[in-house]
Design brief:
The protein is of the alpha+beta class and 159 residues long. Helix content is 22%, strand content 37%. The strands form two sheets. Strands 1-8-3-5-6 form a five-stranded antiparallel sheet, covered by helices on one side. A hairpin with a 2-residue loop joins strand 5 (118-124) and strand 6 (127-128). The model has no long low-confidence stretch (mean pLDDT 94).
Amino acid sequence: MTSAKSISRSAPSSGPATTIASSLLTVQTPGRGFSDLTAEAARFIADVHARDGALTLFIRHTSASLTIQENADPSVLVDLITVLARLAPDDEDAGWTHDTEGPDDMPAHIKTMLTGTSLQVPVLNGRLALGTWQAIYLIEHRARPHRREVVLQFIGGNQ
């Protein structure tokens, strides 16, 4: 059981949600791997003069996804790609029936289902409330480069 002394909470803050701002981020991926979107998300928050609210990111594809992961040690991203490849291999003999765009087509859909197509990040005092070692990533699950679209939408108050 957790002791009441080991948990603390800041005082709540509130304000009107007067702003809804949206933008479409286009990302050219190099192929399978991670693309860091954190700086672009932070720039969007600054451009709309966000104060407190929530940033939603939504990827408009079924063979790429979004995640929040560690940004300090690049081997984390390497290991994540490795485990996704083990869970949904794109070998010609993997037995997938859907292979319209090649052997990595169905595995890409599975990896997207496992990792997700949207994220929500709190915005506090005009900044993304990410932890010290967290970054926002687009994960490209296809072997070849693709042009991906991510919708950014802030809902909350602005300065």
